[in-house]
Task: inverse folding
């Protein structure tokens, strides 16, 4: 997933970043785009909104994939204490190692094992 500024630069040539983010903020507030913020990664925006779904993020390379909600109805998770809020959606970020990084890790382990 590209960041919005990268995408805007690709589409428009050189752009100032602030108007891009101002526009995205307004669209996020209006529910037209969805902001996701993987830990330690720049915020990402996507057009798929209005459905309840999660993400899985690779700790090593930051690769992000969608994980569809298992119940199909929002919110698909019930908080133990909602503090009086009306829940509208739930978002879970699963973290782990993507297949590519896992393969690299296994190859390195095999390589290190052969040297001993
Ligand atoms: Zn990875």
Result:
């Amino acid at each position: 997933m590209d960041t919005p500024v990268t995408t805007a630069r690709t589409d428009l040539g050189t752009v100032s970043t602030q108007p891009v983010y101002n526009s995205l903020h307004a669209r996020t507030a209006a529910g037209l785009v969805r902001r996701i913020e993987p830990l330690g990664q720049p915020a990402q925006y996507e057009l798929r909104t209005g459905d309840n779904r999660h993400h899985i993020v690779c700790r090593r390379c930051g690769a992000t994939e969608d994980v569809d909600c298992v119940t199909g109805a929002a919110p698909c998770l019930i908080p133990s204490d909602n503090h009086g809020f009306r829940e509208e959606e739930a978002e879970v970020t699963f973290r782990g190692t993507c297949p590519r990084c896992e393969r690299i890790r296994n190859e390195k382990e095999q390589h290190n094992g052969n040297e001993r």
User: Anything to note?
Assistant: Residues 55 and 66 are 5 Å apart (CA to CA). Residues 58, 60-61, 63, 98, 100-101 surround zinc ion (CB under 6 Å). Helices lie at 4-12, 17-29, 99-115.
